[in-house]
């Protein structure tokens, strides 16, 4: 399958915009990459990259070629997975794009359970927000996505959509932890820290705060949910997270969560999706089905 090596090089050049960077990524010399690219262009009969002192970029022909390249690479992974499955020796690779909320609890549990049954299946998990996840599906960077969306029509095939509400997260000994649920105004009796704008939960929060007299800017913002959790554990601050990414309300850890009253914050949706028309490898399709079943059981409504 020598053509796959060429395809991987072309994909690396397209992603990095540089023959030298692609060569470093693929552990080859720039001259070897250049020769292979030129040989492919000569065989095709068209140049697929525009060259400039600043690097290379796909031209119109290249945009068609890269789609073919990535489809072929994805189909090859699927073929290998199916052949391995015939022998009863499940192996393969699964690439996932997910919102940060899926990282602390849900996905680690599901991936570890899957790999306990099929230890030869490897995973790649990329933290992506909704728009970036759609692009990653389109260019075959990931097989499937599990991302939070606060609205809008997805540009990919939605396998399952489950509702998500917002929860307040705080230290176990925080005064608000005595309540079973909270009104949003109660949280603003304390310092509020939040994820950066652009994250789905933050968008829901800001929509809910519109024209509220108690609303005020967060005292701290970050793109790291791990930092938010560590900060509230050590202070009297409160932060917010969608329910699948919030700690167990009855857990025994340093932090706990309490649901925000639905009258105060409208919910969003957690979307499990893949590229329209794409046939996934056996390993990926089985894992996606496992995720679908788990979510359907957890959120029957």
Automatic annotation (TrEMBL):
Keywords, sorted A to Z: DNA-binding, Transcription, Transcription regulation
Any one Gene Ontology molecular-function term assigned to this protein's record: DNA binding
Domain HTH lysR-type: 1-59
Keyword Membrane found: no
Top-level taxon of origin: Bacteria
InterPro entries (UniProt xref): HTH-type_LysR_regulators (IPR050950), LysR_HTH_N (IPR000847), LysR_subst-bd (IPR005119), WH-like_DNA-bd_sf (IPR036388), WH_DNA-bd_sf (IPR036390)
GO cellular component: cytosol
Family per record: Belongs to the LysR transcriptional regulatory family.
Name of the molecule in the record: HTH lysR-type domain-containing protein
Lineage: Bacteria, Pseudomonadati, Pseudomonadota, Alphaproteobacteria, Rhodobacterales
């Amino acid at each position: 399958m020598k053509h796959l090596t060429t395809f991987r090089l072309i994909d690396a050049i397209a992603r990095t915009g540089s023959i030298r960077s692609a060569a470093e990524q693929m552990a080859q010399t720039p001259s070897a990459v250049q020769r292979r690219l030129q040989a492919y262009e000569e065989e095709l009969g068209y140049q697929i990259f525009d060259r400039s002192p600043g690097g290379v970029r796909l031209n119109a022909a290249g945009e068609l070629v890269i789609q073919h390249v990535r489809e072929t690479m994805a189909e090859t992974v699927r073929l290998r997975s199916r052949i391995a499955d015939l022998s009863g020796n499940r192996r393969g690779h699964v690439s996932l794009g997910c919102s940060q909320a899926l990282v602390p609890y849900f996905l680690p549990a599901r991936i570890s359970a899957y790999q306990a049954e099929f230890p030869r299946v490897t995973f790649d998990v990329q933290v992506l927000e909704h728009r970036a996840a759609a692009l990653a599906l389109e260019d075959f960077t990931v097989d499937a996505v599990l991302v939070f969306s606060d609205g809008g029509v997805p540009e990919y095939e939605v396998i399952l959509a489950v509702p998500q509400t917002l929860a307040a997260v705080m230290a176990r000994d925080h005064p608000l932890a005595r309540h079973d649920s909270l009104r949003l105004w109660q949280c603003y009796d304390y310092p509020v820290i939040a994820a950066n704008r652009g994250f789905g939960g933050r968008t829901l929060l800001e929509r809910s705060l519109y024209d509220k007299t108690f609303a005020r800017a967060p005292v701290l913002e970050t793109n790291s949910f791990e930092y938010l959790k560590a900060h509230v554990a050590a202070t009297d601050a409160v932060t917010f997270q969608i329910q699948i990414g919030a700690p167990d309300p009855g857990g025994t850890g340093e932090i706990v969560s309490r649901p925000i009253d639905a009258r105060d914050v409208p919910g969003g949706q957690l979307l499990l999706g893949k590229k329209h028309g794409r046939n996934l490898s056996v390993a990926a399709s089985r894992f996606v089905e496992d995720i679908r079943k788990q979510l359907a059981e957890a959120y029957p409504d």
